[in-house]
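check this one:
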Amino acid sequence: MNYNEQADIFKKTFNLKYEPMAISFTNEEISSGRYEKTSFCRAMKLASEGESFVIDEDVSICPGGSQFCGLKGLHAGQKKRRVQNFLTKGEKLTSSIVTFERMSKLGVPPATDLSERIVITPLDKAEIRPDIVLFLCNAEQACRLITLDTYWDGKSPEQQIIGALCYSAIVYTTMSGNTNMTVGDWTARSHQGFETDVIFLSVPYERVHNLIAAIPHCSAGDAETIIPEEFQSD
C-alpha cells in the first residue's frame, strides 16, 4: 500500500477535514515543497491544507522550533536567558524559569543534530518514508485513531501533552516512538489560527500499517458493533 492509498483510507474512514501529514527527518535532497522562511507551526497549518514544506537551518525562523527539531544546538548562556525571559515575561506560558526548565527536562530530549532538513507534507504527496503521520482531528476522530492504534497490543502510549507545538506534535513521537495526543501551545494555536476543536495526534509510521489493518476488525473502524442478547436491555 502506497502513501496515497493510506491517506485515502484515513480521509474516507474518519471523514477528516484536514490532510494527514507525513513528517520526515532526512539528509536527502527533496525535489518538491516550498523552501522559504517559515516556522514549524505555520508549515503544519498549511500542510494540513495541502501545501508541502522543506525546512532546514537556513529557513526556520523560530529559534525554539530550530532547537527542538534539531536544526540548531541547545541554547546556553545569554541565548538561554533570552528564551527564559521571553517565555516567562513575553509569552507568559510558564510561571518561572524553574517551571520552564522542569517542562524542558522532564520530556524526551530534542532531536539535536538528527538531520539536515525536515519535510512536512500531506501524506498523499510524500516522496520518502515518513517518520510520523500527524493528524489534525477532533476528539471523536482522535478517540477512533487511538483505539485502532492500540487494538492489537492493548498498550496505552505514554503521552506528552504540554510543550511547544512542534515538540509535542512532532519531536516527542519521533524520539520516543510513542503515539501522542496534544493540544499544542497557546501561542502556536492562536497565531496560526488553528480551529478551536483541533487536537494534534501523531503516530509513528511503523505503527500505521497495523492501525490500518485494524479498521475492518474494530468498531472504531468499519466493524459493526454486535451486542450479545444477554447484554441487551428489555
